[in-house]
Amino acid sequence: MTVLERTSGRTQRGVAILVSGAGLRRALGRQAREIVGTALGPASMRQGVYPHSWWDVYSALRAAADAEPLVTVVENVHIVEVGQDDITAWAREADGSTWTGDVLLGADGYRSVVRRWVDRARPVADYAGYVVWLGQSELPESYLDRAGGPDFFSGEDDMLAVYPLIDRDGGVTRYGWGWFDPHHTSLFQRIGAIEGTEVKHTPRVDAIPAEVYEEMMRTAEQRWSEPWRTGVIEAFQAREVVATPITEYLPQRVVNGRIGVLGDAAHAQTPMTGAGFEEAVADAAALAEALDGVEVEEGLARYESARLVEMRNRVSAGQSFSRSFAGV
């Protein structure tokens, strides 16, 4: 198997991931389970209550991929077009270089290039009408002994989600947070991150004007209570936040011939579902099972039959929240 990675794989692209141990056990082989379990700690192989940091999960899975002799990861490959014929599928880079194989699977996120081939009538995920500012902070001592999942705090018409993060040693010393914000769509349109109903990219920290960070700090001072307020303000002050326009994609199909999509490429959903990673892992496990011992097109058809209803259910549930929250 060849994995084409658009980046060098060393960039921070998220804050927290809720890991389902049962799902990982099903999706990973024995060696990969051992590597991931060692990297993330014993809690990673149990049903999670707290999420892990995005970087810890990525690093563990990447280590497992690098240790697998049947997997080759090729970095900095920018695929601009995909296609297929009767016997092969292919992916083409911007410079014309082409990769071919029996099957092509797109796990290329909400802006999926592969999705354009799978469903030409509906190639683009929709902007959900709000942004989530994501950050991490040190967990306050007053919260260290608390057990349970995330907390949600309502502002005037926005919301703060707070969730302790599991360290690699199984301890809990940090928390991640997401500030759900329906007010800055025009800003993201102005800087080119949103065009019409399509999210073009997640903006870099320096693409957002300084006065917006100052505004968010003032709003946090007024809106959020301690022990969270200080950590949120400090993250904005240090520019250690990721401003993420939220997208949603409700799939009608996830397979076309010998090409398929999974994860956010197949079913982008609001982080309020708390199940994006879990659903992607379920996709991977279903794909492996469906493709085992059968022709490629038959296997992909089985995958779509096994997963499409659940994909649609998850996205639809999230859309109900988004429409209410964003007022669309």
Automatic annotation (TrEMBL):
Keyword Flavoprotein set for record: yes
Record's keyword terms, sorted: FAD, Flavoprotein, Monooxygenase, Oxidoreductase
GO molecular function terms noted in the UniProt entry: FAD binding; monooxygenase activity
Cofactor(s) essential for the protein: FAD
SUPFAM superfamilies to which the protein is assigned, alphabetical: FAD-linked reductases, C-terminal domain, FAD/NAD(P)-binding domain
One Pfam family named in its UniProt record: FAD_binding_3
Coiled-coil region list: none
Keyword Oxidoreductase part of the UniProt annotation: yes
Limits of the FAD-binding domain: 234-308
PANTHER family: GERANYLGERANYL DIPHOSPHATE REDUCTASE (PTHR13789:SF318), MONOOXYGENASE (PTHR13789)
Protein's UniProt name: FAD binding domain-containing protein
Organism from which the protein derives: Nocardia ignorata
